[in-house]
Design brief:
1 helix; 9 strands
């Protein structure tokens, strides 16, 4: 036997390979305010799910506000191999505010995310937004209220 070899006798050598895969996505949308200029942080949006068991840890920002251009997102949502072959549904809606001069959007969007293992260490994380194929769009209308009184003298 060579000095570099070890006699294992009848004990077999075992090798264990581990495979993992990850992927991510971001749910995002847009706010439009008709009738006046939109302000950053003016409107609030929430994300919820009843079927994602890791929702509380997967989603860091469950409630967000719009930026000055009306854009908002809920941050990066990470998935791993345990999620492969599964789909989760998330609901996005606007939180009704208290400004009586604004008519708030009552639209709710369901976004279904399907996770598939690509077999190369990555996951395909695909969003299905139903009929809303692009970004989720929320439209509010501003309508100032008041009256003008004319007096004759």
């Amino acid at each position: 036997m060579s000095p570099d070899c070890v006699d294992l006798g009848t004990n077999p050598i075992e090798f264990t390979n581990k495979y993992s895969a990850t992927g991510n996505t971001t749910i995002y949308g847009h706010k439009t305010l008709e009738g006046r200029t939109l302000k950053a942080g003016e409107f609030t949006f929430t994300l919820s799910s009843t079927d994602d068991p890791k929702f509380d840890t997967r989603v860091a920002s469950k409630s967000v506000t719009n930026d000055a251009d009306g854009n908002f997102d809920f941050g990066v949502m990470n998935y791993n191999l345990e999620d492969a072959g599964k789909s989760y549904t998330y609901t996005v809606e606007e939180t009704k505010g208290t400004d009586s001069t604004v008519t708030y959007s009552t639209v709710k969007y369901d976004v279904t995310i399907t996770i598939t293992d690509n077999g190369d260490g990555t996951l395909a994380v695909v969003q299905d937004r139903g009929t809303q194929n692009a970004r989720l769009s929320f439209v509010n209308v501003y309508g100032a209220k008041g009256e003008v009184v004319f007096q004759a003298t």
